[in-house]
Amino acid sequence: MKNLLLVFCFLISLQNYAQDSSFSGFLKVEGKNIVNDKDENVVLRGFGLGGYMLQEGYMLKVPFSGQQYVFREHVQELIGNDKTEEFYSSWRKNFMQKQDVDSLKKWGFNSIRLPMHYNLFTLPVEDEPEKGKNTWLEEGFKLTDQLVSWCRDNEIYLILDMHATPGGQGHDVNISDRDPSKASLWESKDNREKLTALWVKLAERYKDEPVIGAYDLINEPNWTFEEGKNKNGTEDSQNVLLWDYQKKLTEAIREIDNNHIIIIEGNGWGNNYNGLIDLWDDNLVMSFHKYWTYNTTESIQNFLDYRENLNIPIWLGESGENSNVWFTDAIGLMEANNIGWCWWPLKKIGFNNPLEIKVNPGYKEILNYWRGEASKPSEEEAYEAFMQLAENTKIENCIIHHDVIDAMIRQTSSKKSMPFKNIRIENQGELKAVNYDLGREGFAYKDSISANYHVSTGKKRQNWNNGRYYRNDGVDIFKKENAAAYDDVYVGDLEIGDWMQYTFTANDAGNYMLAIRVSSQDNLGRAIIEINGVKLETLEIPSTAGEWKWINLNTIPLKKGKNQLRFIAIKSGFNLETIRLQKQ
Fold first, then answer.
1. In this model, does residue 13 exceed pLDDT 60?
2. Which residue, 571, 32, 30, 121, is CA-closest to 337?
């Protein structure tokens, strides 16, 4: 419950940003806009539930091929079929609960994209008892019904996204759980007929449900239909089968359901729209996906042109996996151009999303075993570890990254910084280095590398937080060796010009002794303290031979009430854990 209490405390800071009255009836297309039944423009702000119905290996930190079926085979090897079924049942039960949807609403989001795995709704073609028939499974429908109910309670739109199609829709096998030894969606008419039947079944079930915002037909197709082109379809010039089949899917759905928006996706992970000359329906939305590119108008100009030329709304259906700076800039770009957006994912093992699933010691040992670095656990040990991992997916057991939420909602429209934690200095107080203010780069902190733009630069991926821990800004935060607590961390890799700002309250005005807890090797470090906009003299930071030591520096003046302190590195070579202030 502690983490949930933190969530609701944090909501106070977002109350001016979380108001959204756009939920009203079925969404529909009106020219280049998405509107509600009052003809009000709707900007979708949402999250994709990656890892819920469909796991990808990178979300679980596995060292082998990332398809869900491969992960499942490894689980089965350790605990057997029955216990594997129990693990997956608990995983899906815990991963999404009403509290998750409640929190998304309170944080300021108005939509959810549900990545569906077809095998929760129907059998694979090769497993059907009777060829050409479809066996319907209840679990997928029940899970979707449950999510519909929670979204209805919160007036949040739910977008159904076919993330894993029968056979799989591309050569990037992880995203669709594809087995490359079997026929793909595009190589098998039977697979396409099964997908059509599934969309018809979903349309029959939800045709009168206004909380369903849209049907996203096929996530990220990445398959060439033209000889000699890039296998992922990025170079195809016509995409004939892709457009013909999405047209047929639309026609099949329209036999039953004329209420819902249908979202189409291009080839090459959703972005290649070559060959799309005319639209076949008047309630279509064009989706594009954006990762690791510059956040300039030029980076989305082709989709702005499609919107203008085809008279169709565009929607950023998937984005994320980057830093807070990138999130704020990308969302700001979308909103300036009246483009809705959906981030990926809500939760995983990893720090750059609102909710981080903790790695329990037992699962860490399993990962080590899979890497060849530990002995095989017993069946009972492995079972306990997997069940604890499933328990860790509950929101109350996740680490909540308020900085990510703040960057996506508040910072997109405000340059104001605010305290990461409420800190009051009485006679003595401490500022943990990692708890610098919430806010944009240049206002709450400064770091030389603050985002990953490798698709635009053509260079290797860049880490923004080199420690990949605790916060998602450019500041490099590392976990201490043998740390006993989540916040046993420090700021490292400080470079010349890096700085962090801390806003706090002092009970009394006066001079306060400044001390810092640092570690350094042989280098002599230097820093400047700026207090309430006034820079003080340069501070010499001596070597500590790699140990953590308190260094008393000098006194600084504080005023009664609110104060802002900036710690500015002007010579690197040291790590910073804590700043201590003691009244003289």
1. no
2. 32
